[in-house]
Every structure is written in structure tokens, then in C-alpha cells.
Amino acid sequence: MPLSRTTRFALRLGLKTREYHQWEAVKAHQIHTEKRKAQFLNSPRERVLKDFPETKGVYEVYDSALRFFSDVLMATPTSLATNRRNTLRAQALALGAFDYLDNHQEIPPFTREGRHEEATMVRVEELRTLRVELNQSFEDNARINPATAKDAETRYAQFSIAFF
Question: Which site in 112, 133, 135, 160 is 20 to 30 Å from 49, CA atoms measured?
Fold first, then answer.
């Protein structure tokens, strides 16, 4: 929010208007919320909870979301090593919980009910990634040894049918 011309003129004269004090308060609040989010993403949990105790609810949402995404991927037919992606998904949901803190509202707990579509999309994304990686490895094998190219194509077809 930009300051009005009158307020800017008053600041040049060394006077602080009510609008300027409100603007300072808004800027301080924005800096505080940005720092809180940055600390959440980059600092250890204990330090963040010590500096910002109000983030306890955000961490509860994060932990619940992380358990949910891990459970979703445990149900897939193959073991997928996607801990980093699960962490990023959970962080995205937890960052959404910061909006409740910014509006001085209570953070609702993370629930698993009604997330079937999200779980399906996560599975599809992970299996699509796995399929692309399989395709690349089979193509590399076929390029290295052209005699086994036909065998590699058949094995890839069998694997992709098994996943979908």
C-alpha cells in the first residue's frame, strides 16, 4: 500500500501521520509473517517453535500430511523412494495453514477424509515418474546393445502393463 502524497510530504518535514504509523504496522506484520514462513522452511523445528510458538499447529498439519502422503505411497504396488516429494507436498499444505495464522484464526487439523482424489493424483504422478525412468533405462540398454533392443521393448511393455 503506497503512502499518500500528503504523508510523504509530512515525512520530509519530519512529521509522522496516522497513515504512516498504520503503514509501518502493516510492513512490520508482513516482515514478521515472511520471517516465520522462512524459518519454517529453513530452520530446525525446535528453534522455530521457540521463536514462534504459534506455529505448533502448522507443524501438526505438516506431520499429519506427511504421514498421509507416506501411507498413500505405501499402498502402491512398488516401493517408491519419494521422501523428498512427500516432504514438499506436506510443506505446501503447511504453508496453507500459515494463512490462518496471518488472519488470527485457529488452524484446522489435517483430515484424511475427502482426499481420495488427491491420493489418486499422487499415485498417478509417482507411477508416471517411475514409468518414465523405466523407459529411459530400457532405451539406454537398447542403445548400448542393439541386439537386445527387442527384448528391452518387450520387458518395458510388460512392466508398464503391470503398473497401469
Answer: 112
